[in-house]
Amino acid sequence: MRGFPFSARAVALAATFLAGSAYAATPEEADKGAGAPAQAAPAAGQDDGEIIVTTTAQKRFENIQNVPLAVQVVTPADLEAQGVRHFQDLGKVSPSLVIRPSENPVNANVSLRGIGTFAYAIGVESSVAVTVDGVPLAFQARAFSDLPDVAMIEVLRGPQSTLYGKAASAGLIKIMTVQPTKDFHVKANVLATDDREYGGNFSVTGPINDNLGYVVSASYSNWDGNVLNVFNNKRVNGRETLNTRAKLKWKATPDVIFTLSGNYVDGKTDFGRPFIRVTPGATFLNTPGLTTDVVLPGITIEPDNQKIANNDRAGTKFAGGGGILRTDINIGKMQVLGLTSYDKFHMNDYIDQDDTVAPGAIGRNIQDGRFQSRLFTQEIRLLSPGEDAFRYALGVYYADAAFQRRFYRGPVTSPQNWFATSGSRQIAAFGQIDWEFIQHLTATVGGRAQNERVEYTFDDRRLATSYAGHASDDATTYRLGLNWQATRDILAFGSYATGYKGQTYDLTSNFDKNRAAAGPIRPETSKDWEFGLRSQFFGRRVTFNVTYFSTDYTDLQAQTIEQLADGTSNFRLTNVGKMNTKGLEFEAAARVMRDLTINGGLTYLDATYLSFPAAPCYTQQGPAQGCITQGKLSYQVLTGTRAIQAPEWKGSMAIDYSPALTEKLNGVLVGSWQYQSSVYYAARDPETFQPAFSIFNLSAGVRDHKRRWEATLFVNNLFDKQYFPALVNSGGNFGKQIATQSVLPRDFRRYAGLRFGVNY
Predict the structure, then answer these.
(1) Degrees (nearest 5) of the Cα angle 88, 136, 165?
(2) What three-state secondary structure class fits 45?
(3) Which residues does 277 contact at the CB level (< 8 Å), separation at least 6?
(4) pLDDT digits (tens, 9 = 90+) for 225-251
(5) Can you point out the beta strands (E) in 293-440?
């Protein structure tokens, strides 16, 4: 384990954050068997002052303060406070999580503690897994949608392989949706903003009879975007989405419960990347006369530019659906859980590849494709009683995934035309044992063994060549831990865990006989140390948690430049070496008085490449900036360099004040703050450097004192601070001169809105 450079500066910054997604909650006994998340509202009039957060991170409902894992719980109230309504904005409420959007969700990146999957190929396993109601998503792009019927989100940091069917080398985002209830409930919300966003959602739950319960939920959202295309005078960078979900819960006997659910999503996005910097006089594709005045007419290129000039469409259209059958069987004190799922998803994507209105064919270069995914999973778990001194969770998992990708680019620049398929079949057994061998002292041993077979086909239609291959691999991972419940409100723990990310093929443009002959990319493995403290004070009115982590990754899967046997070079996904990520995660919460709570979180992160000998040079990089040229190969050495998309500091804080105004009304005043230190989106590239920034949100309104309705006026990005969640160096299209494009966030400009909700 490498040394940890920590200073008084860290302590001072940590002290400014009172953190943690805390809420008072008590899960209903009847829903425990169905795995329903705890609801976020205490009983009316309850005011014992305690801050209690429940989690299912260890497959049981537990007070998060008693769970020796690095896990954060996010509630719908947390999402509202930070203005989060879409998956790609979850990083605003989870300091260790960074999500970098892209013109296509497939090219977006989700990273935890500085580790993510920077790849463009189908079938590449994500470092950060996403599950919905316990079932993994095969295609990470499937997650990039609205968050309409969320009951709770858990962000589990670090390798996850001993408690879940789907293993994840960097972490897990666990989304739980609304579950059937014993009583009839209706929850609905509508929203409208001053920048043309509107939408609404509802969920209805209740009983059909004593043994049948249901949920029906749906949502619709529409936003036309914050970028103007001067070519057709239409707004882009927006989205339109329809989500539906239904669940039927059948209590067949007192000890057997079936929950059948189905979901469907349909939507579209349009996209635009404004140019924010271009070298004066630079010409498009080095063509005389094609200056920015010609190819980007009517656009003033400046840091806050919100205009583009695209003469071809850019965006996505997607649809998909699936179903889950959950079976809960109680055998004495033990619980058997079965999860059977099927999901199918497709997405058409299209890009104005030149991002200009240049005359002739070079100004009509397009990129067009289609993704398809299919996933079947079967998981069976056996859980012992959660209150016993000797506890265990055992499981087996099977998954069969298939992907297809059709891709065309041309007709002039970088022409491509290919079709690829990828498939995987995984069988795994996993489990974890917790043994309180001495009172208040518990040891944990967990393990996973799996076999995975991957296969592919690649048909290059432009060159009339095709390739196919397959590979199989066995892997084992494990977790060892020790935790001490020093007092009722203080828990100390430590753990050592290994992680695994499976082998894969880089099925992208320019796949050829050299890549085919090289075989699959080797698995990525990790070794993770964690030490943490969970504590509460003053009658559980104040919570303070801290976790130290250090993780070493070997055979890191990343994009690199490689020299091939025939003298050519390739820009491809491969194993590049080693990486270490370490840091501190702080979480705390305080109920200052009956109507005032403060919470938030802070992460300090040091993520460094320990070995990365041949990374791509950025477009303008020369020998003076570290670009090395050997024959036809140009590369830079990133060993010892900070990882991309890994801010040193990232945090958020929220203050919630809800005083009584009358006997029947309460006021609502919520303020939130998000902070992120500087970050590179491409290694050392100054054109992809995002300076540190802070974003403030504010909302005010009134609610019924029983929370049956609420009306709120909100302002997001209160001080109109501009920042970029992604930057793209497009200098290659402008003779290697500076040409930088931005991806604008939803809150690039200050906007206000009205939200009204009912809850009966």
Answers:
(1) 140
(2) coil
(3) 301, 303, 687, 738, 739, 740
(4) 999 999 999 999 999 999 999 999 999
(5) 307-308, 315-331, 334-352, 366-383, 390-410, 416-438
